[in-house]
Amino acid sequence: MKLVTVEQMRCIEARAAEAGFLSHILMENAGRASAQEIAKCIDRIEGYPILILTGPGNNGGDGLVTARYLHDWGADIKLYLCTERPVNDPNYILTQNKKVLTIKATEDKEFIQLEYLLHSNNFIIDAILGIGKSRLISGVLKEITTRVNKARLKYSHLTIFSLDIPSGLDSDTGHMDAAGIKADITITLGYPKVGLFSFPGASNTGRIITADIGIPSETAQDVNVEITTTDFIKSILPERPSNANKGTFGKVLVIGGSSNYIGAPCLACSGAMHIGTGLVTLATAASLQPISATKLTEVTYLPLPEQITGIIGLKAIEIIKEHLQQYDVLLIGCGLGQNPDTIKFVRSLLISTTTDIPSRLVVDADALNIIAQSPEWWQKIPDDVILTPHPGEMSRLTGRGISDIQAQRIDIAREAALLWHKTVVLKGAYTVIAAPDGRVRVNPNANPGLSSAGTGDVLSGVIAGLAAQGMSSFNAASCGVFLHSTAGEIIKEKIGDTGILASDLLSALPLAIKQIKNAP
To answer: Quick one: which of 61, 312, 356, 471 is 20 to 30 A from 150 by CA?
Structure first.
């Protein structure tokens, strides 16, 4: 599903108009679709109390159409005009012809009627400001939105819907006006907007529903940013033929671990195993192998010689070179540490032109920090590589500040992937996956429960395992992130979003695959 900016949405609407889908048709479709989504949330719509707040522009027009449909279906609609509508506005005229109860803010002294309506209605529909919002909310609109937000906190029975975007949200940047509406559910129209998945505004969206308003899909063909969907992931999951053997599902070599970070590579190996990889081998310092073996029964081992106990160093390079070609994918970085000898090992393995590394490579954690220290490192490692940085690692790779990266996650991930000719997984809430050809996918889930040590190691193992099963780097990264987050949602549903451990995700990964395969 395409993820669009304001300019792209306007271009799409202009193309739709050229194809015969004029603005009034799209507004009618938008209002009807919004009403249908709202009606799905109500067991019995007849007599159901709903307050609709409308603003001055097209978003207000969408609200008027929504009001008409809900009124026709029997809901008890109260329409509150935050600003006057033009006297010749056809959608306003239709609501008045149907005797929809209407209150004007200009006639509501001290907002006494608004306060009563906020208390006496179950659903509030925010159709005040849409994607055209370009200045701070002020005056009467600020008075209204402030009261709506206070009512949401005061009255537990209230559910707030926002049409297209919550009023006050910048659709491109995710910046949120201090007086902006905090929605429980956002019904975004046509295509979701970038700002809905960008913080801090993403905290105000609640659950996001995308409503089809009849725009022909070909009008958005040039948009190269998408939200990853269940249907897409279902279509690319690796097949599991009945006559398979472990070689069918690929082999992954994981190089990682140090005396202080023994668990990280174990989690990565487990992630690869639980995603269906045929064989996983852990290459770690020889003194750590017995400890790892108590955690991992199913993996095989490649113990590496040590110059310093518990540290992978240059002495291991020849053994790694001897075994590399036995594997489909190499994952390196989890728990490696930053010992000077380890830095030399990583540089010799990845940066050296004499090492024939596998064409499929996943670089994570400390390996990212190490290669970031080499000027123009991206020119020294193969193109078909998946990089999985969190914002701090991305900062070291790009030389840009973390706040800058977080404010422009999609653009910076895309620019990096294009420059480096690598697949980039910029981790975090709404993880961004960028391909070397300019395509971008944004993961639709943001789960604070995954903000704990080790979850990134599990993710790198999942991605490596999918790549070993034959998926392209971009698809392996996109699918891995989606499955990882879906597993997180499964755990969150059971225990909440506090106290989720990285190891909790492992048993949920097969369930995530099953859930997606069984999706209608």
So the answer is: 61
